[in-house]
Design brief:
Elements lengths: L11 E4 L5 H13 L4 E4 L5 E3 L2 H12 L17 H10 L7 H7 L2 E3 L12 E2 L6 H4 L6 E3 H7 L5 H49 L1
Parallel strand pairs: 1-2, 1-5, 2-4
Antiparallel strand pairs: 3-6
Helix pairs in contact: 1-3
């Protein structure tokens, strides 16, 4: 992810599936503070260490925290996985200063992979992956499951849209493979016909 070729004016799209929450949030916060634009997709697949039971208890305790005299002034308790991740990143940047506000404006977060990001190149961050950073015997839960348990209502909707997207992506990939195969075959056929003319050009 540190390769200079990945960074451009339009930013980078990160696939957060099976990434650890704290690690991916730290990476994203450092990246946006350096001025790069970052889009994080599939936030519902982010993993949190610890069992679902323990993490749900922690979040339910967080839901009880509010302003005593006027709860509408905060703190605000997000239920969507993307907003939970956004709030985690916000806690890692100086969001009350102009520098932090400007950095947060460069971050976009989504559940699933909505258009036009389904057609763009997505990258992963190996340093944040659960398979590489977490003991396989340890318990964990996904951010989507936790959000569903505390009031997020769109888990089935996102999963349905993701299944439809994967089906369309597979169809598009198979079509592209067939077209590439036909193109290579056409190149081989035309190269045989052009061989005599190419020999004349090479002799000069």
């Amino acid at each position: 992810m540190s390769a200079s070729g990945l960074w451009n004016a339009k930013g980078i799209v990160i696939d957060a599936q099976n990434c650890m929450l704290g690690r991916i949030a730290a990476l994203v916060s450092k990246t946006i503070l350096t001025g790069h634009r970052v889009t994080v997709v599939r936030c519902e697949g982010i993993c949190i260490s610890g069992s679902l039971y323990v993490n749900k208890l922690k979040y339910l305790q967080f839901l009880n925290k509010r302003m005593n005299t006027n709860p509408s002034k905060g703190p605000y308790h997000f239920r969507a996985p993307s907003k939970i991740f956004w709030r985690t990143v916000r806690g890692m940047v100086p969001h009350k200063l102009y520098r932090g506000k400007d950095a947060l404006s460069k971050l976009k977060v989504y559940e699933g992979v909505p258009p036009p990001y389904n057609l763009k190149k997505r990258v992963v961050a190996p340093s944040t992956m659960r398979h590489l950073r977490m003991n396989p015997k340890r318990k964990y839960c996904s951010l989507g499951t936790l959000a569903h348990e505390v009031g997020w209502k769109y888990k089935t909707v996102v999963s349905t849209l993701e299944a439809r997207r994967k089906m369309k992506s597979a169809t598009r990939h198979n079509k592209q493979k067939k077209e590439d195969k036909l193109r290579e075959k056409a190149k081989a056929n035309i190269s045989k016909k052009l061989a005599p003319f190419q020999a004349i050009l090479d002799s000069r």
